[in-house]
């Protein structure tokens, strides 16, 4: 089979790799139907995730069909269409028992495309299949479901829920890429008074408007002052960091009100300064987190009911074998207007979302 293999910082290729096989009785082998590329994959290619060794097949988000299961797998069988979660769960360790699946100590956590071969291939081995894949409702298209493998649960859990968004809140989201846009969509479920999106790219700010942001701001034009103006000088109740660079994190700490919450979602490759000389007196809560995907079943039900605008985030589609081209388009989002790229499925063309 073929897979997209990491060879070191800045180097990866679509090439022949060995077919996966059952290694443990809890494994499943899945034929990949639809996959997508995550911003974290770009961090890996930059060398920001050193535990990814050369020779690893990348990817941790996919939908496909079960083709083989180990003897201990009980919840899925060959022929089932499933969503592969970005997080693998043993179900037995202390963290899994607390629903902190991202911190699994039993051989799970974020392992696909990081510690073991991932989903950007024709076939993938999924450990602990009973807890790490989800049967897909017939009403949910594979091209939509793949966005529930990572970005929607990440935005919902690490941003909206960790941030404690409540009705009537002012919510500011720094970064209007796929994660930030999914955070806008899921924050709206809690009826905040207003959502303010901050980004550098006009196309992404337009997408933020379409997804439900009440106000948008160019990151170069004092967005913290806009937040202050809209809140009578108080600041936002919840601020989410969805970029992963020091400047955006520090901006978030300037936008939050006393007693407010900064929820860091972004993957950081460089140190960020924590200005405790200013924050210590403000009763601010700062949370970080890797997604646990405990919300995936809920989000799947919402998607089946038409409550999540997943399709609006997909701007480009490709055949699976064009992964190298898709990475190039996704990495140059400022030029291409890419939000989320999807590979595989039934159609391959540029999709421009409409208002």
Automatic annotation (TrEMBL):
This is Alcohol dehydrogenase. Keywords: Metal-binding, Oxidoreductase, Zinc. Transmembrane segments: none annotated. InterPro entries: ADH-like_C, ADH-like_N, ADH_Zn_CS, ER, GroES-like_sf, NAD(P)-bd_dom_sf. CDD domains: FDH_like_ADH2 (cd08286). The keyword Oxidoreductase applies. Residues 8-343 form the Enoyl reductase (ER) domain. PANTHER family: NADP-DEPENDENT ISOPROPANOL DEHYDROGENASE, ZINC-TYPE ALCOHOL DEHYDROGENASE-LIKE. One of its GO terms (molecular function) is oxidoreductase activity. Residues 1-20 are annotated as: Disordered. Its cofactor is Zn(2+). Belongs to the zinc-containing alcohol dehydrogenase family. PROSITE patterns: ADH_ZINC (PS00059).
């Amino acid at each position: 089979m073929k897979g997209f293999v990491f060879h070191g910082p800045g180097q990866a290729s679509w090439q022949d790799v060995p077919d996966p096989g059952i290694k443990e009785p809890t494994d499943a082998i899945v034929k990949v139907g639809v996959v997508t590329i995550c911003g974290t994959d770009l961090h890996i290619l930059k060398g920001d995730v050193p535990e990814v060794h050369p020779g690893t097949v990348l990817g941790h988000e996919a939908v496909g069909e079960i083709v083989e299961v180990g003897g201990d797998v009980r919840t899925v069988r060959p022929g089932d269409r499933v969503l592969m979660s970005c997080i693998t769960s043993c179900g037995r360790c202390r963290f899994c028992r607390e629903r902190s699946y991202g911190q699994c100590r039993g051989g799970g956590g974020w392992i696909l495309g990081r510690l073991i071969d991932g989903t950007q291939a024709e076939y993938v081995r999924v450990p602990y299949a009973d807890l790490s894949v989800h049967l897909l409702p017939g009403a949910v298209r594979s091209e939509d479901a793949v966005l529930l493998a990572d970005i929607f649960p990440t935005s919902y859990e690490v941003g909206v829920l960790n941030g404690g968004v409540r009705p009537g809140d002012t919510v500011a989201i720094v970064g209007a890429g796929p994660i930030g846009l999914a955070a806008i969509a899921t924050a709206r479920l809690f009826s905040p008074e207003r959502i303010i999106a901050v980004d550098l790219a006009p196309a992404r700010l337009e997408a933020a408007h379409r997804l439900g942001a009440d106000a948008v701001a160019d990151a170069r034009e004092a967005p913290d002052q806009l937040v202050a103006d809209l809140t009578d000088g108080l600041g936002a109740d919840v601020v989410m960091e969805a970029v992963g660079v020091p400047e955006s994190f520090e901006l978030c700490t300037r936008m939050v009100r006393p007693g407010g919450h900064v929820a860091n979602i972004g993957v950081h490759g460089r140190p960020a300064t924590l200005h405790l000389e200013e924050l210590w007196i403000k009763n601010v809560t700062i949370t970080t987190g890797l997604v646990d995907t405990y919300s995936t079943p809920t989000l799947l039900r919402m998607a089946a009911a038409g409550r999540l605008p997943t399709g609006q985030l997909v701007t480009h589609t490709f055949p699976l074998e064009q992964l190298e081209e898709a990475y190039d388009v996704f990495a140059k989002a400022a030029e291409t207007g890419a939000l989320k790229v999807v590979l595989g499925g039934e159609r391959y063309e540029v999709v421009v979302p409409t208002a």
